[in-house]
Specification:
Two copies of one chain form a homodimer. By secondary structure, the first copy, chain A, is an alpha+beta fold. In chain A, a hairpin with a 2-residue loop joins strand 11 and strand 12. In chain A, helix 2 packs parallel to helix 3 and helix 2 packs parallel to helix 6. In chain A, the strands form two sheets. A seven-stranded mixed sheet of chain A has the order 7-9-6-10-8-11-12, with helices on both faces. The relative contact order of chain A is 0.18. Chain A is about 30% helix and about 25% strand. Chain A has nine helices and twelve strands. Chains A and B meet through helix 1, strand 1, strand 2, strand 3 and helix 3 of A and helix 1, strand 1, strand 2, strand 3 and helix 3 of B.
């Protein structure tokens, strides 16, 4: 998680561009690659649709081992992938872990530390680990694939379902992870949001059951993730406010990422029903932060154009 | 793929040991981690069992970009994972790709090259790509998760089903990949077995349907993989011969790995039926290379104890 930066860059410079190219290369057989949605829907012969997603955590890119323990890295890798299930309104079935650890003395211990964190997050989610692979590498990489399902009769919530006039809601304050990272760097104690984020599985399921039309998790930054939802749905948005986590700045909240709060839309008619659903479930009420609009080029925050602030890998 | 080496090392020195520790840490919730089987079986609510596996290819560990193109790496990563499905007698449903590529100029091209090879192997298998994630990293890592299923009424073939007196068979000659790597290093033209291996999906399915009791793919070396099958099944073996690929040595065949031929057992009673099944399917007849025995400590090749020759990562 670096500083927020605008990501309007030339072609094939950023993750979204490469993903677009790859999607074209793989043709129509592919239902989702990376950013088309948080997770893909796969039809299992003789069964219902499976919700699947893969997410990687790379040392020096997503995590810094001087600020996070190997167990923190394992926790975050599993929760980050489970958060993609939450953002589809799906329930976890299991996870597969591809672990790459540097060779040399002591790295058996790093591998065990990472898997300890994976095991802890696996219990907390809950999402059992059903398979894995260990390999040597020059740096620590943890790639987690998660499998999930939506209750019979329900449908997964994609990014593409928003229509003009929907309310835009978020399950909680954002920016806590970015602020936590700053605190860790300053050697203060407030790093939990960064070190041990929690996927909003119950919030995702509840949002799905009570009318969410489009949903995404805030993994790369609220601004960038909202742009992606709007891209997929073909709508614009007018954002009025953003809940900012304690200790975080507005810039953290807009562009910090890794908060794993869920961002979703609901029709004006379903807003009250949805609020009641969250209350019944004993969940924190989601905050209404704006509204979608028909003009897909209109994308404002407090009246000004909102840049695509957030975290994207540069692959130039 | 390094030179074959014996892997009887102290605790937590090799991949198998770390995997054993992790398996204990994750408790009984885990059905398979790494070497317990080629793939894990996961129950999908409202559906049949899903066969899942994950496999990584790491630059400098499994592949050398001076000998393989990025597209070769992508091909191999996908086929290696699909081979785990073949070894369960399962049919592919789809694959998820976690791609980590070094930052900096030109690496967008590496990412596209890798995915081109993934796409080619995806068509050849066939196994559609259903999801993916791209990240920066210090070195190229491709982690592939595959999902598969076994035809209704059938059961996946694990490593653990062998009983004493079973015939041991292999679907083809081994050592071709190791020999191919040597040829590549010597700049001759014989590198296809190393650069573009093919998973034995039809052979795996046919073996399953005609009585295979235990099965594994030769990914790390015939000797090591046979030991693993024997470990899982609680049997010993008497190996009489090993088919050696053209241009390969006996040591290549025993310890080279990455051949992706399938190694399986069948009861004496089912041998003829199985041979007929392979013939009906138009497949190369599997070669009988030995027999399983009740004494799990008896593990010989041509009368001498067979070392666990093969490829294991050292994580000490």
């Amino acid at each position: 998680v670096g500083s927020p930066k605008p990501t309007d860059q030339p072609a094939i410079a950023g993750e979204d561009d490469v993903v677009e190219f790859i999607r074209g290369m793989l043709g129509s057989g592919i239902e989702a690659f990376g950013l088309r949605d948080d997770a893909a829907l796969v039809q299992v012969p003789g069964g219902g649709p499976l919700v699947v997603s893969v997410d990687s955590v790379v040392e020096g890119v997503h995590v810094d081992l001087s600020l996070s323990t190997p167990a923190d890295v394992g926790w975050k890798a599993l929760m980050g992938a489970v958060s993609d299930l939450a953002a589809m309104g799906a329930a976890p079935i299991g996870a597969l872990i591809a672990l790459c650890v540097p060779g040399g003395s002591g790295n058996g211990e790093v591998a065990l530390g990472v898997m300890e964190g994976v095991a802890e997050a696996s219990v907390a989610a809950p999402c059992p680990v059903v398979g894995g692979d260990i390999s040597g590498a020059g740096q620590l990489v943890v790639a987690v694939t998660v499998l999930g399902s939506v209750a019979p009769g329900g449908s997964a919530v994609t990014r593409a379902g928003a229509a003009p006039g929907d309310a835009i809601l978020v399950t909680g304050p954002c920016g806590g992870s970015a602020a936590g990272l700053r605190h860790l760097r300053a050697h203060t104690a407030l790093g939990q949001a960064y070190r041990r984020p929690v996927a909003r599985l119950r919030e995702g399921d509840t949002a799905r059951r009570f009318g969410a039309k489009a949903m995404i998790d805030v993994s790369d930054g609220l601004a960038l993730d909202l742009h992606r939802l709007a891209d997929a749905s073909g709508v614009g948005f007018v954002l009025g406010e953003v809940p900012v986590a304690d200790g975080a700045t507005l810039e953290d909240a807009l562009g910090g990422g890794e908060d794993y709060e869920l961002l979703f839309t609901v029709s004006a008619a379903d807003q009250e029903k949805l609020a009641a659903g969250f209350e019944t479930e004993g969940l924190r009420p989601p905050r209404r932060i704006g509204v979608t609009v028909a003009d897909a080029t209109e994308r404002t925050f407090r009246g000004d154009a909102l840049p695509r602030l957030g975290w994207q890998h540069t692959l130039g």
